[in-house]
Specification:
Length: about 300
Amino acid sequence: MRSTKSRPNASRIRADTIVIGAGPAGLGAALALGDSAVVLESQDTVGGLCRSLMLDGAVFDLGGHSFTTPHPAIRRLVFDALEMEEQKRDAWCWLNGEWVRYPFQQHFSELADPDSRHACQIGLEAAGRWRDAANFDEYLDHRFGRGITELFMRPYNRKLWGADLTRLDTDWIAERVAAPPGVAESCMSKNGRRSPLSKEAVIAYPAKGGFGEIFQALAKRVADLRLRQCVISIDPKTSTLRTTNGETPPHFDTSSARVAAADPKRPCCNKLRGVYAGSFAHHSCDVGSKWKTRDASPTNLLSRREHHRP
C-alpha cells in the first residue's frame, strides 16, 4: 500500500477513475479497474466498516461479519488472497431470555409466550403495501406488521444501522432482509442480484485474525492506494479535488477523471461538492462534465473483467 507521505510528488493524480474510500466497495472497484484507478482513503488502514481492531491482545470486528457470495469470481478473488475457513450458517436471536432461530421473522412461532406469537401473526396478516414504503422504517411496518416489527425488527435494526431508520432507503432490502415465512427465496435472484441467505448457506471467515484481514489482503493488489487522504471537496467547475493531509492539503487535477464515492453518506463525503449522493454500487461522476449513471458495482466490474479474460 502506498500513501502520499512516501510519495512527495503525488500532487497530481494521473488516473481514469478516483475512488474515494478503501472499504469493500472501494477496493472492489479498484481491483476491477486496475492501473486506471487511484484510491484515496481518509484513515491509516483499509476495510472501512469491515475492518478489525486489536484491543488488549484480542481481535474485534466492527459489527458481525461473515463472507459469502453467489459470484464465483468474487469467491476466487477472496480465497486466492488469504486462507479462509467455511461452515454452515447457524444463527440465533437472543430475545427476552430465550433463543429463537434467525431470521426472527421466519421463526417467531418458536416464541414461548403465546401473546407474543399471536401479536406477530396478527400483525403479519394485516401487513401490506410494503413495495410503496418511503424508507426502511416504514418498510418494516408494511412488510412484517406491528408485532414482528416492534418486538424484534425495529430494535434489532436500530442497533445495527442507527436510531433513525427513516434515513435508510429501500433499494437494498431485497438483497439483505429475509421475507416472512412461506415466501420462497434463493441465494441469487433472477436479475443476478444477491438475495438474503438461506438456512443452508455456507459462510466463510479468515482462518487467522479478524474479518478485516480480507481487505488487508486485497489492498495489497491495488495498484495505487493512498492512505490518510480525506477528501474534503470536489469542484466540477474547476475540475479539482481537495484532500486534507495534516496542515497542507494537496490539490489534485481531476479534469479527465471519473470520481466514485464508495460511501457518499459518511461524514467525510456528506460535505463534498460534486459527488452524486447515491449508492456507489450504481453511480459515478465525471468531474468537469455532467453526472453519469453507470452500472459500476464491484461485483459487476469484476464479473465483466472475468467475462473478457483470455
